[in-house]
Amino acid sequence: MKNIILLTFTSLVILSCSSSKQTDQVSSYIFDNEEVLSALQEVELNELFRAHEVQTSNQVVLLTTSDFGADPDIETFAMNYGNRLGIGQADKDNGVLIVFSKAMRQTMISTGLGTQKVLTDEIASQFVDELMIPKFRDSLYFEGIQAASWAIVEFLERAGNEIR
Asked: Structurally, how many domains does the chain consist of?
């Protein structure tokens, strides 16, 4: 029987960190704590997210994790992690956090309130259901993450989808 990823999805408010320079780019957009990605795959996604931030100021971050630590569920874990990292610009709340746990068999796309006005829960859930989970069922973890990452970036870069 193939492994099936449990989808747990919610919208989160990802607050920006207390840094006074909110226009600074984050140094890394990939936190592969579960070591799912190769070095080359990390570079590819990091470059995609960096170029997207340069073009839009949105920050997209990928986090893989084998557990949720002291947090009871993926939603709480994502919110706490996003808040610690300060994903997104404070004045726009334009962060996106992709969380994937192979060990826990869960994934989600979490958006800041500003981002959620454009990239709604319904659209993000569609990316998870149609792009990520089918690949994960075949143990193609990078391919699922990559497909959703490109879909998020392309969607947010479409004319009319600017986050204000």
From this structure: 1
Q: Is the pLDDT of residue 10 over 70?
A: no
pTM for the model stands at: 0.84
Across 94-119, average pLDDT:
94
Domain-located, residue 161? no
Helix (H, G, I), strand (E, B) or coil at 148: helix
Q: Which two tokens stand for residue 161?
A: 């989808």
Where in the sequence is the domain holding 142, given as residue range(s)? 6-15+28-156
Distance CA 8, CA 10 (A): 7
Comparing C-alpha atoms, which of 108, 125, 119 is closest to residue 160?
119
More confident residue, 39 or 24: 39
- Left (φ > 0), alpha (ψ -120 to 50) or beta: where does 102 sit? alpha
What's 47's domain CATH number? 3.10.310.50
The single-letter DSSP state of residue 25 is: P
